């Protein structure tokens, strides 16, 4: 039997510090979560290219002009046409630069006007973000303006309310799980499982922030998968704790828990390692969405396994001790 | 001891489930038949009719450069008549892996030649079987691929703000005139005047379309489109507002019958209340020539193939013959079902001349379908918003004795007389509705109508958002991940591991079958997620096997260890899965497509994995036991080989 409970305070502190650190780095160092076309909108150019220029050249052309495209996709093979999409960070950065420049130009133009001098056209004619990108790319790739079939500012396809909504749903999830576990076990266990779930969720979200993963639907799916895994993992151990408690009624809660965790340790590691192996293969996938998805789940499995062993049951212990102390006084 | 008869029964159940799943998946690998229907004529932009000669169709079918063979090079389209279409106007081709994207591409490339309504994949026998009891007679079982894997259709809609303005003006005008009158009156108290001025400003603001307001309207339209696509069962579409050009782009993965979906997206159908102009209505209906027009209209609608251009012409003709002046109102058709015949189809039966809309779906806060106790039809109960309730009260008070028409789209569905003013803000819509229709109307009121009409300005095809290379690599990596799990299980648990792997594969087959039955759209992360769910399903086997090993170590005989391993793991597996199921159920109550999709996969994945781990692998274990005569159990390392002491 391994005496996990001896170090429970250390585990709690490690987790707390870990979560706080991830969020601090996300917000202080990176200035928040990364943004994406799906959630924040962006820019799209539709282009029909002359023969001989393909997807790779187009991607390189944009990159050389200083605008790394988020996505380039083939629209029509016969007409050799493509969609190039640029993300929100680029759009906002350019927008801010251009606005500042426009203000300067305006000031200059005003000065000239006051002095009674003619105002040159480039001071009053301020280009927009789309114009700037188009001009730079066409020049870089040596193309005619006709290749641009359409250019659009695109709004977000999933609103910010998706995240609020997900938050609301999580509350209901906690409530549902809480009720079931209170009914099947005791309230203390419901609390422990919910806290372990919250722990994994916060860690995973912090990880997304620090790893600069762009929010997207696959990312959301990854987080939801972690939730499923985390719950599953915790309950298996809780079940064994209950069984052990029935067999060894005279033991203390701490001893019972240590014994149950030790007994299930082989299962916990095997399942964890197995799922992790399957996920690690995804990291070789090549497609960015798959790599992001794999990274989140791989991290979630590690954290989920950690919290099942080191956090969930110790939360139950703390709560039970707190309750008996309250009852004792 | 294992009872032979019991075991045979359990095996039969497992085999039956596997067989059923295989049948559900069979249509994906079968040779498919695509029926293509050709038009008899099309209309050029000016509305003139241009006939299509059979020779033109024949040439098109054989054309390798610019016709059908460019899209389906390996197959020949054989002429085949069906129903209304002669063999000259319909042909059937056979090919494998005909995706909806390919069909859409073909149809959209020749909109004037190919009739989309008659162009569809003919159902496979398994699809007829799965949908035998449905109205269509079959159920689509082919696995659909998402935008990232297969690409899809991008439709761009431009918001028609001119019509929007016209409609808002038409709706606000009476109120503005009333306010102006009141403001002009000297005896209106100053306090009320202030209120009226504020209201006037609000009305005027509604008619001012600056950039921010247009963007708001676009976003409102976008949300409604999202809801509509979700109601169509189209998972994972991407809808985006494009404020620069006042348009909305809708990307849809492999939508079948693109025309139907496009029509549904830009459907502006809503419920409206308009006051009937009784005098003009009597005039237009009593005109003997118009009786003939109605007869013609009934014919058109009864045939099921409606040419909107022709209908509009006929209505204009009727208005002219009835000498209806524009200021008297607009002419609509009043639809009735044949008397005393519930099954009969509703058809236009009379004209109605109606004033401007007095109230519409946006004034209603909630609606639901209900049985009408006074007739054999259904009705819709609704509750109005506070502002709508006030307007409805005013409307009914000032029009007592007149008839009030209720419109569903451009159809007058009923026109009850107003006997007394109606206050209180709730009401009902009656008409010859059947259950389905009443549910549809209630649904549209709840979802909300589009704030403005949308014009489809372009329909194009977008390639997969992932490159070919990433798709191949992605799929390979997912398979690799799965293989790792398989090898580990067999390496660690030996023959017992093989049983777990068999259960796992079966789980994958059942899950895919359920997904195709539900019409799910498969994306690359979705694929990875499904495999991962299967990977996690191994967990149930791991729990059972570790328990069996524990018992073997404690000296139990293999058959007893298996028995107690499965029994004591049952509640552990149920508890952990039920808790996760609760999470899945909560998530599926969300309003957002992607979250619902995930929850559904999780839900069915959990149920099928419980079935395979607890039921199927037990059946396999019992067979192995029976065949090896309870002698030994191969379940990997960790203890000396367990030789049974019988």
Question: Alpha-carbon distance between the termini of chain B?
Answer: 12 Å
Name the quaternary structure: heterodimer
| Basic shape of chain A | elongated
How many runs of DSSP E, i.e. beta strands of chain A? 4
As a whole number of angstroms, the C-alpha radius of gyration of chain B is 32 Å
Mean pLDDT of chain B: 80
Unreliable residue runs of chain A: none
Number of helices of chain B: 19
Tell me the helix content of chain B.
Answer: 40-55%
Poorly predicted sequence stretches spanning 5 or more consecutive residues of chain B: 640-646
Strand content of chain A: 5-15%
Radius of gyration of chain A, in Å, reads 28 Å
For the secondary structure, the number of strands of chain B is 20
Termini separation of chain A:
33 Å
Strand content of chain B: 15-25%
Question: What is the approximate shape of chain B?
Answer: globular
Approximate helicity band of chain A = 55-70%
Q: How do the strands line up in the largest sheet of chain A?
A: 2-3-1-4
In terms of structural class, how would the helical and strand content of chain A be classed?
Answer: alpha+beta
Mean pLDDT metric of chain A: 83
What order do the helices and strands come in, and which of them pair?
The complex is a heterodimer of chains A (329) and B (646).
Chain A lengths: L7 H22 L7 H4 L1 E7 L6 H10 L6 E6 L4 E6 L1 H27 L6 H4 L4 H13 L6 E7 L6 H24 L2 H24 L6 H31 L5 H30 L5 H23 L1 H17 L1
Antiparallel strand pairs in A: 1-3, 1-4, 2-3
Helix pairs in contact in A: 1-8, 7-8, 8-9, 8-11, 8-12, 9-10, 9-11, 10-11
Chain B lengths: L3 H23 L5 E7 L2 E3 L5 E3 L2 H9 L5 H4 L6 E2 L10 E6 L4 H10 L4 E9 L2 H6 L13 E2 L1 H4 L1 E8 L1 H24 L5 H17 L4 H21 L6 E5 L4 E7 L4 H8 L5 E6 L1 H9 L1 H16 L4 H14 L8 E7 L10 E14 L3 E8 L6 E7 L1 H13 L5 E5 L2 E4 L11 E8 L1 H13 L6 E9 L5 H50 L3 E2 L1 H30 L4 H31 L4 H35 L19
Parallel strand pairs in B: 7-20, 12-17
Antiparallel strand pairs in B: 1-5, 1-6, 2-3, 4-5, 8-10, 8-19, 9-10, 11-13, 11-16, 12-13, 14-15, 15-18, 16-17
Helix pairs in contact in B: 1-16, 1-19, 7-8, 12-13, 16-17, 16-19, 17-18, 17-19, 18-19
């Amino acid at each position: 039997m391994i005496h996990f409970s001896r170090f429970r305070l250390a585990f709690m502190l490690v987790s707390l510090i870990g979560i706080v650190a991830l969020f601090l780095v996300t917000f202080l160092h990176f200035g928040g979560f990364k943004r994406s076309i799906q959630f924040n909108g962006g820019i799209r150019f539709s282009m029909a290219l002359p023969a001989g220029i393909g997807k790779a050249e187009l991607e390189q052309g944009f990159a050389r002009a200083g605008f790394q495209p988020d996505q380039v996709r083939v629209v029509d093979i016969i007409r050799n046409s493509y969609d190039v999409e640029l993300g929100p960070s680029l759009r906002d950065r350019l927008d801010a630069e251009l606005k500042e420049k426009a203000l300067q130009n305006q000031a200059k133009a005003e000065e000239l006007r006051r002095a009674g001098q003619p105002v040159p056209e480039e001071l009053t004619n301020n280009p927009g973000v789309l114009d700037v990108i188009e001009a730079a790319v066409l020049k870089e790739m040596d193309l005619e303006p006709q290749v641009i079939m359409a250019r659009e500012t695109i709004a977000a396809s999933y609103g910010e309310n998706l995240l609020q909504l997900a938050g609301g749903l999580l509350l209901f999830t906690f409530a549902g799980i809480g009720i079931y576990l209170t009914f099947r076990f005791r309230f203390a266990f419901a609390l422990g499982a919910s806290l372990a779930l919250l722990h994994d969720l916060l860690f995973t979200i912090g990880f997304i922030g620090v790893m600069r993963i762009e929010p997207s639907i696959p990312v959301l799916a990854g987080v939801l998968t972690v939730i499923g895994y985390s719950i599953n993992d915790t309950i298996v151990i809780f079940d064994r704790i209950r069984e052990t408690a029935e067999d060894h009624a005279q033991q203390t809660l701490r001893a019972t828990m240590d014994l149950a965790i030790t007994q299930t340790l082989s299962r916990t590691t095997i399942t964890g390692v197995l799922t992790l192996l399957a996920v690690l293969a995804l990291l070789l996938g090549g497609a960015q969405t798959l790599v992001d998805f794999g990274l989140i789940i791989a991290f979630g499995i590690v954290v989920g396994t950690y919290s099942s062993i080191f956090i969930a049951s110790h939360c139950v212990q703390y709560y039970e001790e707190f309750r008996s102390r309250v009852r004792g006084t | 001891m294992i009872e032979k008869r019991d075991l045979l029964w359990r095996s039969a159940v497992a085999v039956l489930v596997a067989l059923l799943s295989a049948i559900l998946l069979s249509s994906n690998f079968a040779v498919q038949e695509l029926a293509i229907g050709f038009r008899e004529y099309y209309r050029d932009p000016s509305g003139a009719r241009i006939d299509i000669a059979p020779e033109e169709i024949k040439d098109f079918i054989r054309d390798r450069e610019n016709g059908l063979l460019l899209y389906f090079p390996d197959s020949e389209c054989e002429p085949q008549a069906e129903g209304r279409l002669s063999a000259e106007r319909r042909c059937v081709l056979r090919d494998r892996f005909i995706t909806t994207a390919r069909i859409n591409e073909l149809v959209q490339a020749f909109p004037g030649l190919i009739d989309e309504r008659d162009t569809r994949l003919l159902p496979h026998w398994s699809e007829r079987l799965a949908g035998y009891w449905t109205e269509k007679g079959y159920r689509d079982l082919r696995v659909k691929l998402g935008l990232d894997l297969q690409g899809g259709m991008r439709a761009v809609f431009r918001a028609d703000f001119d019509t929007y303005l016209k409609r808002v003006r038409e709706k606000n005008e009476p109120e503005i005139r009333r306010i102006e009158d009141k403001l002009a009156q000297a005896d209106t108290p100053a306090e009320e005047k202030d209120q009226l001025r504020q209201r006037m400003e609000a009305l005027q603001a509604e008619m001012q379309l600056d950039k921010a307001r247009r963007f708001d309207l676009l976003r409102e339209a976008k949300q409604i489109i999202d809801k509509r696509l979700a109601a169509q069962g189209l998972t994972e579409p991407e809808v985006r507002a494009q404020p620069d050009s006042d348009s909305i782009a809708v990307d849809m993965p492999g939508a079948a019958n693109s025309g139907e979906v496009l029509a549904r997206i830009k459907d502006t159908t809503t419920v409206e209340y308009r006051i009937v102009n009784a005098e003009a209505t009597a005039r237009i209906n009593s005109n003997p020539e118009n009786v003939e027009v109605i007869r013609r209209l009934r014919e058109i609608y009864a045939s099921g193939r409606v040419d909107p251009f022709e209908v509009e012409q006929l209505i204009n003709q009727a208005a002219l013959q009835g000498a209806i002046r524009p200021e008297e109102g607009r002419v609509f058709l009043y639809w009735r079902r044949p008397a005393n015949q519930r099954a009969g189809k509703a058809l236009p039966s009379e004209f109605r001349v109606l004033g401007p809309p007095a109230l519409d779906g946006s004034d209603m806060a909630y609606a639901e379908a209900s049985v009408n106790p006074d007739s054999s039809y259904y009705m819709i109960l609704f509750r109005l918003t506070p502002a709508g309730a006030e307007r409805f009260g005013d409307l009914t008070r000032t029009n007592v004795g007149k008839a009030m028409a209720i419109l569903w789209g451009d159809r007058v569905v009923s026109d009850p007389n107003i006997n007394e003013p109606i206050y209180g803000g709730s009401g009902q819509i009656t008409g010859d509705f059947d259950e389905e229709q009443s549910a549809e109307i209630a649904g549209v009121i709840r979802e909300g109508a589009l704030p403005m009409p949308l014009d489809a300005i372009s329909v194009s095809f977008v390639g997969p958002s992932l490159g070919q290379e990433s798709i191949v690599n992605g799929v390979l990596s997912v398979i690799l991940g799965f293989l790792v799990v398989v090898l580990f299980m067999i390496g660690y648990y030996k023959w017992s591991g093989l049983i777990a792997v068999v259960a796992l594969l079966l789980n994958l087959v059942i899950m895919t079958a359920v997904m195709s039955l539900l019409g799910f759209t498969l994306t690359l992360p979705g694929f990875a997620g499904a495999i991962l769910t299967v990977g996690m399903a191994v967990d149930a086997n791991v729990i059972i096997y570790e328990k069996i090993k524990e018992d073997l170590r404690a000296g139990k005989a293999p058959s007893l260890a298996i028995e107690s391993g499965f029994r004591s793991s049952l509640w552990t597996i149920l508890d952990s899965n039920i808790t996760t199921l609760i999470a899945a159920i909560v998530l599926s109550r969300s309003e957002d497509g992607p979250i619902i999709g995930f929850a559904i996969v999780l839900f069915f994945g959990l149920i099928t994995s419980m079935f395979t781990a607890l039921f199927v692998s037990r059946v396999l274990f019992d067979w192995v036991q029976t065949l090896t005569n309870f002698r030994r159990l191969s379940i990997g390392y960790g203890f000396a080989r367990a030789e049974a002491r019988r």
